[in-house]
């Protein structure tokens, strides 16, 4: 088996696509309220929320253990509602040479499809595939649709939508 891999998780949720894309780009810290069992802290370390090149630090729980990471927003494609996060520091980087997460939102009405694509290169063949991370991405996305009150959507201030 190779050291490079890709995992994809796709989820349909009842949530407006434009607002969801804005949440993943500009309001990542709001995910702490939505999934506190997984996400513990989210800090902007450099740049501006949503800007390419900005650096964000997370503390999160994976497999019952508190972990941390830093990522930057590597690219944003507004037309395709696609954001690429490049993880460059933290616990994941002890076992992966590289790790990127792409999140794409399709749909503009009341329902959306969210696709997470994780691309990674393991340090060695003993490193497991990131199935736990796939599970977290799936659950956090699902929680957006079930835990975030649709009536509060109007209160989320997203710069591109104002």
Automatic annotation (TrEMBL):
Domain Bet v I/Major latex protein: 2-151
Phylogenetic lineage: Eukaryota, Viridiplantae, Streptophyta, Embryophyta, Tracheophyta
Matching SMART domains: Bet_v_1
Gene Ontology biological-process entries: defense response
Pfam families hit by this protein: Bet_v_1
Coiled coil, from the record: none
Name of this protein: Bet v I/Major latex protein domain-containing protein
Domain of life: Eukaryota
């Amino acid at each position: 088996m190779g050291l490079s891999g890709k995992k994809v998780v796709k989820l349909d949720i009842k949530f407006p696509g434009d607002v969801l894309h804005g949440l993943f780009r500009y309001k990542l810290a709001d995910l702490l309220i939505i999934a506190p069992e997984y996400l513990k802290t989210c800090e902007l370390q450099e740049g501006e929320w949503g800007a390419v090149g900005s650096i964000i630090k997370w503390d999160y729980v994976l497999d019952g253990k508190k972990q941390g990471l830093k990522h930057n927003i590597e690219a944003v494609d507004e037309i395709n509602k696609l954001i690429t996060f490049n993880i460059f520091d933290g616990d994941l980087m002890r076992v992966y040479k590289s790790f990127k997460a792409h999140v794409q939102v399709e749909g503009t009405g009341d329902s959306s499809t969210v696709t997470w694509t994780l691309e990674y290169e393991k340090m060695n063949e003993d490193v497991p595939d990131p199935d736990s991370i796939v599970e977290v991405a799936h659950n956090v996305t699902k929680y957006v649709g079930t835990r975030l009150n649709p009536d509060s959507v109007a209160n989320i201030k997203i710069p591109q939508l104002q």
